[in-house]
Design a protein that fits this description.
Elements lengths: L10 E3 L15 E6 L5 E5 L5 E4 L5 E5 L7 E6 L5 E5 L3 E5 L5 E6 L16 E6 L6 E5 L5 E5 L5 E5 L12 E7 L3 E6 L4 E6 L4 E6 L3 E6 L7 E5 L15 E5 L5 E5 L14 E6 L5 E5 L1 H4 L13 E6 L12 H10 L17
Antiparallel strand pairs: 1-24, 2-3, 3-4, 4-5, 6-7, 7-8, 8-9, 10-11, 11-12, 12-13, 14-15, 15-16, 16-17, 18-19, 19-20, 20-21, 22-23, 23-24
Amino acid sequence: MAQTANTETTYQPVVGWPAVPHGIFLHEATSVGVDSQDRVYVFNRGQWPMVVFDKEGNFLDAWGAGEFNRPHGVSFDANDNMYLADDANFVQKRTPDGEVLMTLGQRGVEKPRHTGEPFNSPTHIAIDPRNGDWFVSDGYRNSSVHRFDAAGKHIMSWGESGSGPGQFALPHNICMVGEDRVLVADRENYRLQMFTVDGEFILEKRVHKPQGLFAGTGGDMNIYVAEGRPPLVMEGVRRLGKRVAVLDRDLNELVSIGNEMSGQAPDQFISPHAMAVDSEGSIYVAEVSYNGLGSRLEPAREVVSLRKWRRIDTNGPGEQGLSGRALEQYMKGLRNDGPGGGSPVNSPYG
């Protein structure tokens, strides 16, 4: 089990991870989750919304065709139950094989905007490890967090549009911190907000466009934050988002991964959207890179949207991915010439 990271912790991109089979197109990976066996579940907007790999990147399974409109968030509880958020107004509990156990909301039916009534474009789900309560961030056209019990009964909601404490401008992701705190990525307010499980505001931290959250469990006491790309007017500027920051539980930054510039090189990001961490402390990052880059290329095309960064301070130097001629040709084939792209800055990959 991974231990808590510190300021000396190091990560290394695994080049070319994973091995996506011929004929499977992710379009873009919107979220990623890891179960207790370190199987990696990639929620994506391709023809199979859920694609599953092992931690080495070998393909295991794919399912979900026709069952989702806009895949957005995936998370797991301690019993390997899977929780999925589709921003077409429904959330689900499923088995790792995809069997539906519970659905909240109604697919394609939205509640009035910014009224606090679930749902209008929900984004992610966190589960209370003590009792199985659901916390749903909601979302693109709402400004609320909803709490349900394990049976799906609505307990309470909190939040409204605004920029003050307890208000939201697109609650984009959510996670439990320990057993009694809830952390929300308040994306368009460029901050994180911490609450009690009853919705009482505790503190906030300013960050650049937080899109994804993940809280470590067991020996891992860290919080991981994925920062999206800057607005178009600042596109191509260094040191604005496009990274994953590792925090302590008081929201102090310890270390981060990602190059200063956007792109498809192994150490770059385009628009990190969600992440998960396995038992070895390695970080898996899903990116909305078609929206951020691929759709604006000529011709429009799928670009890199799924990455693994291996924690190497505790695991040793192995599994670096491609090397030698394979790495050379892989890098040659990547295109960094689109909007927001550019040559890697201080990158060992050239």
